[in-house]
Amino acid sequence: MPLHPLLRPALAAVVLPLLVACESARQWTPPILQPYRPDVQQGNVVTKEMADQLAVGMTRDQVRFLMGTPALVSVFHQDRWDYVYLLKRGKGAEVQSRRLTVFFKDNRLERFEADELPPEALADNLILGRKPKPQPKAPPSPADPLRSRDIDPKTGVEVITPTIPPVGF
Asked: What is the Cα–Cα distance from 98 to 89, expressed in whole angstroms?
């Protein structure tokens, strides 16, 4: 028995939203019909520079000032603070997870354990989803003489000539 001509669009209008809601349907559904999925960030953003500033003997207030309020403080482990960070991308399956755990003894920082933490510039790029820019080259040290390379037009030999840096204000 054929379907009534008006029943087909009505059936499609009911079934299509149900299929789009399924996670498996994301693979074959056109992007225009997929729901918006925002990036989800949870916890504390902790960078390598922040962890490098931690020092044994710091008070709880100093650690809280430096790192922020911990994401997890257990009633059963009051001498342990956990700084956890999770970033789940809305599009795709990329998940970033980092953890830093701080241990106290007599209200002083005893030790801390951390996953590999990114530097601050890289952390910003990871959060924003951008490709990180390459780090600039370090400037020459004062012990290294400044030199420039030229090619002698007559002989075609590379000539290294020292240059004097400009002096002045």
From this structure: 15
pLDDT of residue 111: 92
For residue 159, list its beta bridge partners: 150
- The dihedral built from the CA positions of residue 41, 47, 50 and 52, taken in this order, carries a sign that is positive
User: Of the candidates 68, 94, 93, 95, which has an alpha carbon nearest to the alpha carbon of residue 82?
Assistant: 68
- Structure confidence by residue, pLDDT tens digits, 56-71: 999 999 999 999 988 8
The three-class DSSP label of residue 139 is coil
> Which tokens sit at 138?
């370090």
The region of weakest confidence among 18-27, 31-40, 78-87 is: 18-27
- CA dist 89 and 138 (Å) reads 34
